[in-house]
Amino acid sequence: MGKKDLADSDFRKIIELEDTPEKYECIFFAYEGLGDKENALKTLDIYLTADSTDSGRLYDAACLYSRLGDANKALSFLERFLEKDPSKLAHMQRDIDLKNLRGTEEYKRLIEKYQQSSNIKDAFSDENKERHASHVSEVSFIKDNGICQVKCKINELPLYFVFDTGASTVSLSMVEANFMMKNGYLSAKDVVGSQRFMDANGNVSEGTIVNLRKVEFGEEQLNNVRASVVRNQKAPLLLGQSVLGRLGKIEIDNNARVIKVSR
Questions:
Q1: Domain annotation for the chain: domains and CATH numbers
Q2: pLDDT higher than threshold 90 for residue 52
Q3: Full-prediction pTM beyond 0.70?
Q4: Which of 15, 29, 38, 71 is the most exposed place for a label (fewest CB within 10 A)?
């Protein structure tokens, strides 16, 4: 959007939040955005060393090297990624991080190779979808007046959230946020800023943005999740897309009253 000052501020916040290798997810992109190539590559190496076989990390490496203009290394990591997960070809063709590669003959040959492979056909066939899911976890839910609620842990604090696929973020009310602040589940350094939100009724209100260091949802654990604190004592706790969008495929089994998460 051309708002470099705001972007740089967010990049610096990412670096502040991801202060240990265990938290690394975007820090190398933040350094790249700030023009610090040395630290971008240094933190990427640490990230890859932790698990050099993880397909997501290989893809992140390809994206970073593409953004840095190193097509050879980007293509090398991209091929290693495709060997593990050829089903992401459509996403690759849209990903802005790979725009520096798409005009090269090497990239075109790589795409053609995996488009023609039997693996890609197999990955998209309905009868093999379940076989290709690496893991399926189940999370129980309860219904209260027709509303689906699930139990999560936020920074080790157990809470029940409304399962809301239409909400953009995790949402806390002032009651829960104040309790978490007073009891050490949130600290001043977790406060990111403020933002205006529109609710389902079309009303606009201002809320505080906080960083949740750890969110546990069934067997899933996510680090550094953005959440909004709504300045309304009675606002419901909402589990929105800042968590759900990072979980993979989600199915609701109303008969068994479980939410299935496939990765």
A1: 4-131 (1.25.40), 136-262 (2.40.70.10)
A2: no
A3: no
A4: 38
